[in-house]
Amino acid sequence: SATGNTILGEEKFSTDSSFISCTSKPQKESCKHNGQIFEVIDTPGLYDTSKTEELVKRDLKLCLEMTSPGPHMFLVIMSVGRITEQEKYTLKYMSEMFGDEDFLNHTILVITRKEDLDPERNSDDEDDDYDVSDELKTFIYDSEDLTRIVKQCGDRCLAISNSGLVHSSNRRGEAQRIIQSAYELIDQNKGVCYSNFMFKELKRRQEILRRENEFREQRLTE
Questions:
Q1: pTM, whole model, 2 decimals?
Q2: Distances in whole angstroms, Cα of residue 9 to Cα of each of 63, 124, 167
Q3: Domain range summary for the chain, segments of one domain joined by +
Q4: Is 195 exposed, middle or buried (0-12, 13-18, 19+ CB in 10 A)?
């Protein structure tokens, strides 16, 4: 949610003081960057213990339906720190939901709290666009799981900071970096977004596979 607000330049999505998403249902907001309208959808947490797996899947499907003709980019958000067991399987879960290649070709991994990558940096330093590329590479390299996740995303990964006021030059700069990454990914995909057709085709193939497996099991029991 905090990253969504950074992109929007406004506090549209609800967050708590630790920038943890408070989203209970999909929410769509929009903003303008360089004269272009960007739609941002904040999704409920994948591992919300108050929801069943079916409800989570329903929310994700609703997020897709809220875009037309489909999203140009999925942002998978993680924070600096130890990767949780749940986060390790985030891409696997999303890939199963939206299809491996189609989903991953439209995905960027965003690491938040980039200020924690360089703890020796002076917190009073007003350099809004400080470079942590070396620290980010080390952070990724030191984690086998994170290395795998970044590789699955086609090495598309950037570190940002959501600290400070949403209108601050720091967060406006971070928003511009995300938007630039979006443009680059759109160019890479030749303007083709992840479409509802891709999703429906995936579900059709999954249903065919399910029926074939049921048929095999039935033949084995006869």
A1: 0.81
A2: 21, 22, 6
A3: 2-221
A4: middle
**What is the C-alpha separation between 3 and 174, in angstroms, rounded?**
9
Taking domain 2-221, whether its CATH number is 3.40.50.300 is answered by: yes
Q: How many residues appear in the chain?
A: 222
Distance of CA 64 to the CA centre of its chain: 13
Report how far apart the first and last C-alpha atoms of the chain are (Å, whole number). 53
pLDDT digits (tens), the chain, 222 positions: 899 999 999 999 987 644 444 556 889 999 998 888 999 999 877 766 677 777 877 888 888 788 877 889 999 999 888 788 888 888 888 887 777 788 899 999 999 999 998 877 655 555 556 788 899 999 999 989 899 999 999 999 999 999 999 999 999 999 999 999 999 999 999 998 887 666 666 667 667 766 777 767 776 666
Tell me the CA distances in angstroms from 39 to 87, 126, 184, one per residue in order: 25, 30, 17
3-state secondary structure of 36: strand
